[in-house]
Amino acid sequence: MKREQHFDIFVSYRRTSFDTANLIATKLQMAGYSVFFDVETLRSGKFNERLFEVIEQCKDFVLVLPPNALDRCNDEGDWVRLEVEHAMKHGKNIIPVMLRGFEWPAAETLPESLRELPKYNAITAADPQVFAENMERLKRSFLVSRAKTSWQKYRMVLYFVCAVVIGIVCFVMLGRNTQQTATSEGVGVKREGSVSNAQVEQVCADYALMIFGEYAKCDINMTVNESAYKEWLKFVENYDEAKFLEQVMLFEECMENYRLQLMAPEKIVITDADEQTLRGAGIKKSVVSGHNLEFGEFYKETNRFIDTLIDYAWAENPALLLEFSAHGLDTRIYSLEMCYYSMLHTFSEMPASIYDELYEVFPSLSYFANVPLQLPSEEYKRMSDVAYNKFEESVRRMSLIVNNTSLKTEGADICVERLAEAEAALDAAYDGLDLSEESLITAADDKASARSKVERLVASIDNFEVAMRGYIDAMVEYEKTVNDRDVSEELEEQYTSIMSELYASRDAMLAEYEARGWGKYE
Asked: What's the rounded Cα separation, in Å, for the pair 278 and 270?
């Protein structure tokens, strides 16, 4: 039987303040609070008794006040009045949040039951630029409730993220010397000195929820990008050259408000003890921690998409950019799909018990609530390949637009061709990475066998480094020529991060080779 959810915070609002109230509720949910926000408008029709029950459950009552929010409270059937009265009656911690333009009416104009309301400590939230600061004040100084550390913390939670980087992420932080023995369900066989199956299942469940929570942030960031894109379409539709400056300034303000809704990722850090437990399940540390790069890149690109729309708004003829921006949004969606299927593939390597809580959480996703969680890993690989093909097609169409519209600049077609060749070379180098035998130096029977494995590892990393260097150079040239954007510093950081991890894997194997008494590898 499904448990009825308990809530700690009730958010009350007028329809005119829905967007801000929804943002407040979302931010609190992402911070780990259990928040009731009536997005289904249960207040319509007969006032729903369920709302009274939730108010009685909650410790905190957040009242979002847009201009003239209390004007209708003299109506005995007004739902904001009914909610506030019920919160007062039950002694709840009431926190008024005053939006721009709201002013407290004279006490005598309020119904007697609400005349104490202006005496409650309130937060002024008139300036969207300090919204994040106000949210911190709300959590730190006003709320009685405390954030939870369970999956609820993550519940609500790429314009051009390189598909190759998504593919290699699971190799970035490779763990070493992992003995992979597993039962038919993927749970490590208990050996002397090993952890229990129950402990393995618990650790895997905890990290699965962390991964899912960070993916949920990607999901909500994608919904923000889609909303921002819809505003861009409205901007183009209503474009008036005579009011250009006014329209652009309003559009920029709107985009910055959307930027405030983006959810930054939190790095998944695996403790040494948990790493040992994961090893007991035959799961590499890199399989879990490797998702950090995906989440970080997706957050950067969703931010960049908003920057791109702002740049488009300043174009002399923004209508020419409609098709290009549509494909830009598509590439993010397909990248999101690849990221999601990568996550599900990770889960397929963990014990089946991790799905007990995941099944409660995943319907909250906007895009993939209908994708089964327990398909064979081969099926997720197939689905990822389909998404990748769509991604490539969208990028190809963008390249054609670049070559055939006013976006075209001298040499753009050459840059596109060079980038495609560099991507193909990087794909080939990735396929040749020989990291699968990381622990076989220890297991090697003789020096010759061990040396052969080390040679393959060193050669594959060298080839990958050359290919990645070529890809970065091509990408920098492409962005400078086609998009008038310098991405060299950002790509250098990516390069340094990825290669440092691969070098660490190489150096560890070389040290292990030498420690076996086979001399220094040259």
From this structure: 10
Give SS3 for 376.
Answer: coil
Percentage of the chain lying above the pLDDT 90 cut: 12
Q: What angle do CA 171, 491, 499 make, to 5 degrees?
A: 35
Contact of 494 with 487, CB cutoff 8 Å: no
Per DSSP, the three-state class of 135 is helix
Domain boundaries, the chain: 9-148, 163-518
Instruction: Of 230, 275, 281, give the one whose Cα is nearest residue 255.
Output: 230
Say which amino acid occupies 6: H
- The set of residues, in sequence order, having a beta carbon less than 8 Å from that of 256 and lying 6+ positions away, is 128, 129
Pick among 3.20.20.70, 3.40.50.261, 3.40.50.10140, 3.40.50.720: CATH of 9-148:
3.40.50.10140
Tokens, residue 315: 């174009």
To which H or E segment does residue 369 belong? none
Contact 134, 101 (CB under 8 A): no
Q: Which residue has the higher pLDDT, 173 or 496?
A: 496
pLDDT tens-digit series, residues 160-192? 333 322 232 332 222 323 333 333 333 333 333
